Every structure is written in C-alpha cells, then in structure tokens.
Amino acid sequence: MEEYSYPIDVDWSTDEIIDVVAFFEAVEKAYDEGVSARELDEKYRRFKSVVPGKAEEKTLFREFKSNSGLESYAAVKLLKDAGNDDVIRI
C-alpha cells in the first residue's frame, strides 16, 4: 500500500481520526487487493458516525482523491450492491 495524506479535521478526537483513516485505508485496500464488503461496510459506518453530512463526506472524498488518485465513492457505490461475503475490488 502507498502512504497517502488523509483528510482530517483538527476538531476530531483521536478515535474519530482513527475511524476516518481506517475507512480510507479500506478504500485503498479495495484498489490494491480487494476488501471484504463486511469490512468496508463496518469502516464506512464508523466513518459516517464521524462525518454524517453528505457535503462534508463529498469534500473529504474529493481531498482524498486529490491526494491519492483513488475514488472513495466508487468503493461505497459497489458496497451498496454487495453482499456481506462479497469482495470489493476496483
């Protein structure tokens, strides 16, 4: 896996930062080797508990794509149609 700069908010707690970074790492994994839908779903749910708003989510997705070239929305879109035992690869 590459080392990317992750979009974070200075007002988040350490646990919230960990949850957001874990989601973006799962997106990376979807691109690199594939990630289980169950794992990505869990990471996305925790991400959404930190970033509940769509506008902020889109901003963070855009920042991450700018830093990494990876499209988080593509992983989330595939997740919506996946079963728990599926592997998501982009």
From TrEMBL:
- Spell out the InterPro entries in the cross-references: BH2638-like_sf (IPR023324), UPF0223 (IPR007920)
Supply the Pfam families for this chain: UPF0223
Q: Which Gene3D superfamilies match?
A: BH2638-like (1.10.220.80)
Protein's name according to its UniProt entry: UPF0223 family protein
Species per Swiss-Prot/TrEMBL record: Salinicoccus roseus
